[in-house]
């Protein structure tokens, strides 16, 4: 079995395991960005002989911008509304630049 076939086999197995959580009602759906990125690895490897810049740390940096920074700007008490306002404020600042 080639490495490409092994990767595809493991990816298919992972998705089969996800279905178990949905079938028993633990989770309605499973959509994790880092695991979703794995779907694109195969295409990148076959077309470019590498994952072509795909990296699971991309989602981590997005999480920091979208969640951690607004959380730190909040009072940490009923922070969701404060975080939404902070995100809107960051977006408006970015649009000005």
What's the topology here?
Layout: H1 3-23, H2 33-48, H3 57-73, H4 79-96
Helix pairs in contact: 1-2, 3-4
Summarize the structure.
The protein is mainly α.
Q: Tell me the domain tally.
A: 2
Rg, Å, rounded: 19 Å
Helix proportion of residues, in percent?
A: over 70%
The overall average pLDDT, rounded, is: 80
Q: What pattern of helices and strands is seen along the backbone? A: HHHH
Strand elements, count? 0
Global structural class: mainly alpha
Work out the helix count.
Answer: 4
Taking the alpha carbons of the first and last residues, their distance comes to: 51 Å
Sheet with the most strands, sense and barrel status? none
Uncertain residue segments: none
As a percent range, the share of strand residues is: under 5%
Mass-distribution shape:
flat
What would you note in describing this structure?
The protein is an all-alpha fold. It is 74% helix and 0% strand. The protein is flat, with a radius of gyration of 19 Å.
Supply the key terms.
mainly alpha; flat
